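lol forgot to send this yesterday, sorry. struct tokens for the thing we talked abt
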């Protein structure tokens, strides 16, 4: 069964707005709610700095909901040591009664790194960090005692106690890089996520992931596959939501009539999507989400 979620941006809003949105989204029948991990807004401008911190809001999301799976897509491995993330998501799993998931990515928003004095290495190094961080997080979440020796991170007989509610907290890898990111997903992920791509691109990336799985001897069906999509019923809504990047994200934005949205969702399912998340930003148009939920029969 295809799952449907909402991926909620933490920029330009008060926690009260988020909490109200999460509760209503859960009531609509969605299966998943996630937050993002940024210190600044999504424009990349050095003055666009109004954004809430992800671990804190991931925790609030867990406490404000009762049914949905709660995740983050995705934590930047350059911002926190993977052991800190593993400890945090374990606490979130305990607080939520076993509904937590964790996503990891290599990070890209250089404006945030520069502003806070965090080293922003080359893409190759950031993806090496992602590979090591995924191994560390997976070990700490799924094993009683963990040791790891890498170039960027290490663990020495590390324990993560108390243990989470879930025996196996899902670890997601975000991104579409075919040589490194998808190989990391094949090696370590329970789920793979990519934003704003057309169905044919999603299918292509999924085939690359399948090939990596085959090369390492892993059944590709073990990895859940999700796409994050925009929702804009008309062009004005698209431009008001995404501004300068509207044309860039257009291939991965749902719109038009209810039937057109349903048919587009089916195209993603046929391309291998197990989960479809709607990516929303403040001010939250919850009526549009209600319309989507009704069209898909989620209520």
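and heres what i got for the seq, position by position
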């Amino acid at each position: 069964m295809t799952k449907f979620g909402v991926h909620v941006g933490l920029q330009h809003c008060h926690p009260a707005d988020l909490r109200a949105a999460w509760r209503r989204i859960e009531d609509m029948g969605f299966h998943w709610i996630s937050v993002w991990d940024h210190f600044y807004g999504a424009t990349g401008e050095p003055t666009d700095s109004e954004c809430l911190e992800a671990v804190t809001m991931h925790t609030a999301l867990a406490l404000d909901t009762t049914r949905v799976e709660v995740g983050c897509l995705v934590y930047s491995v350059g911002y926190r040591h993977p052991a800190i993330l593993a400890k945090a998501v374990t606490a979130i799993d305990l607080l939520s009664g076993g509904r937590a998931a964790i996503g990891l990515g290599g990070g890209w928003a250089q404006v945030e790194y520069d502003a806070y004095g965090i080293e922003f290495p080359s893409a190759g190094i950031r993806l090496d960090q992602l590979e090591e961080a995924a191994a560390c997080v997976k070990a700490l979440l799924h094993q009683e005692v963990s040791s790891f020796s890498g170039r960027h991170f290490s663990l020495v007989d590390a324990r993560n106690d108390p243990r989470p509610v879930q025996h196996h907290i899902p670890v997601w890898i975000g991104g579409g890089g075919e040589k490194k990111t998808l190989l990391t997903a094949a090696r370590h992920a329970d789920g793979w996520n990519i934003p704003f791509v057309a169905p044919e691109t999603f299918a292509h990336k999924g085939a690359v992931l399948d090939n990596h799985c085959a090369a390492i001897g892993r059944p590709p069906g073990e990895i859940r596959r999700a796409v994050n999509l925009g929702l804009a019923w008309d062009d004005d809504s698209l431009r008001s939501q995404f501004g300068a990047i509207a044309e860039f994200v257009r291939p991965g934005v749902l719109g038009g009539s209810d039937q057109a949205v349903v048919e587009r969702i089916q195209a993603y399912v046929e391309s291998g999507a197990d989960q479809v998340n709607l990516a929303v930003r403040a001010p939250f148009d919850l009526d549009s989400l209600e319309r989507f939920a009704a069209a898909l029969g989620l209520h």
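Residues 3-296 form a domain with the TIM Barrel fold (CATH 3.20.20.30). anyway ping me if u want another try
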